[in-house]
Amino acid sequence: MIGLIRVLTVSDPAALNCHADLIEKKYGLSLVSRCIPDQATGIHDEETEQIAIPKIINLGKELVESGCQLLLVSCAADPAVAQLRSATAVPVIGAGSAAALVANASGKKTGVIGITEEVPAIVAHTLGANFKGYLKPEGINNTNDLLSSEGQSACVQAVETLIANGAEQIQFACTGMGTINLKQILSANGITVPLIDAVEAEGLFASFYR
Prior knowledge:
Blueprint: E1 2-6, H1 13-16, H2 18-27, E2 31-35, H3 46-65, E3 70-74, H4 81-87, E4 92-94, H5 95-104, E5 110-114, H6 121-127, E6 131-135, H7 149-164, E7 169-173, H8 176-179, H9 182-188, E8 195-196, H10 198-207
Parallel strand pairs: 1-2, 1-3, 3-4, 5-6, 5-7, 7-8
Helix pairs in contact: 2-10, 3-4, 5-6, 5-10
């Protein structure tokens, strides 16, 4: 059994399971999704990440105790991933590093789009010399802002800017971009460079442990 940890607090089952559903559809994996409490805007800065870390650790331990043999932390900052690897005996995959590793496989210069003021440290570190630049779309301050048409248009504009500045492919540094299927939105707006979705990337790595 694979446990998927959401860092956005949601009560609607469809919203809770949307990342698991994407992974199941693409890779044929079965997952159980749980979310941390009291984080209605998820993780979008240093403060919200620090508040979330102990919650993620506790939830990860609970999932392992319930029988999960693999954990996915579905957040591109990889919060508490290192701590969970030390605290449990199961593999722990973070969405941000997973996406960056996929991006590195091509050797292309990678532009990154996200919801934080600065690129998540794990993403920049993993991309290394392939990191081409980072943008936070205008008006996007947390994952919920991605749900609006204005937020999605801002994502398109940010990606166009990154490509104009030399990015050969784009990595999403927010799993909420998988929630809204930003890949499809960008493709519909004429973006043709490779697009690396963090939810798909964590699912790819999870598929090796099936």
